Amino acid sequence: MTDFDVRPVAEDxxxxxxxxxxxxxxxxxVSDENWSRYGESWPATHKFGAFDGATxxxxxxxxxxxxxxxxxxxxxxxxxxxxxxxxxRTRRGVLTAMMAAQLEDFAARGIPVAAxxxxxxxxxxxFGYGSATLGKTVWVPRPRARLHDRVPVSGDIxxxxxxxxxxxxxxxxxxxGLHRAGMVGRPSVWWPIAHDRLVGPHGSHVVAVHSGPDxxxxxVVYDTxxxxxxxxxxxxxxxxxxxxxxxxxxxxxxxxRFLLSVDLVSGIRGRYRPVDEPLAPMLTDHRDAQTRxxxxxxxxxxxxxxxxxxxxxxxxxDPVVLAVRDRMLPANTGHYEVGPDGARRTDAAADLxxxxxxxxxxxxxxxxxxxxxxxxxxxxVHPGAEARADELFTTIAAxxxxxxx
Length: 405
Hints:
The protein is of the alpha+beta class. The protein folds into three domains: 107 residues, Gcn5-related N-acetyltransferase (GNAT) (Aminopeptidase), CATH 3.40.630.30; 161 residues, Aminopeptidase; 89 residues, SCP2 sterol-binding domain (Nonspecific Lipid-transfer Protein, Chain A), CATH 3.30.1050.
């Protein structure tokens, strides 16, 4: 028998659950002033809380949006943007109960996939989430690094005022679109706390926008961190990229050219950049684009396996039958034929067998079936099927999310 109940969060419980999430993530309690500014980003909708009587002891939050999938399609997504359990109530089944309620809600509402950014990578696999995209941390030393002469020069760069940054970047993000598999939509509830707080009048971040022949086509959000000390008074600042989003190579190169021109900077650091971002060959010395880390970024959870598999495209190869196991949503357990013409449920014998979290790793093309088989995550029933799955699921561009939530 449990000593808590899991239920939807009521309107008058929003702030208490937000404070609970902050404490579980070891951040400061939100002030009245900040709550008045950014509380709209924490609506009661699609939040499940664990309660001991009237007191919240756990929270699992999400919002509805979309995700780009291979082939250019867009799929409805449940973006899980906050999960936490009070420190004195962990390891008592609270998290499992909330995650189960959330998944059942996604399934009941017809949300085919869910996604999150994992604070700890060992937590979410047991709930069916798999590491679906990777991001790299790049370090570029300044002033040594520069673009080579054959990188084209195009367009103009302008800096936005804080008021312009709050107003214009959401419009530009929608204009650029979800142009790479893994990118997610940003609904109105996302912007106040994830963007406005940083770039608005009370924030420290700067926004630069690139304009090409057809108008604005890229932007970068960045901050600087002072590295000067008494021992090193001339040490330049570190320029930290929060996000850099461009719709084509010309805009991408122009934004990097601008960043490399900023004075009094000793280095540029970008975290969660696409693993295939072609920065190194753009530089006169490719070693100046130093990859300092590669880490998991977006975690994906198929909620409706048939709908998720049918939504993306596949490359040319003989079909393969996947036997998928899903402990938390058993309706997904079954066999699925995947081929160049799409995917469908089938009674045919399986070629490969895998759990639903591994399907999440395979789905966007970040991991190959062969690599996952070598890692013990895919069971090869018919030898050679993993190579066919590699060809079917692979993508030319690595998947990338580019959005914090």
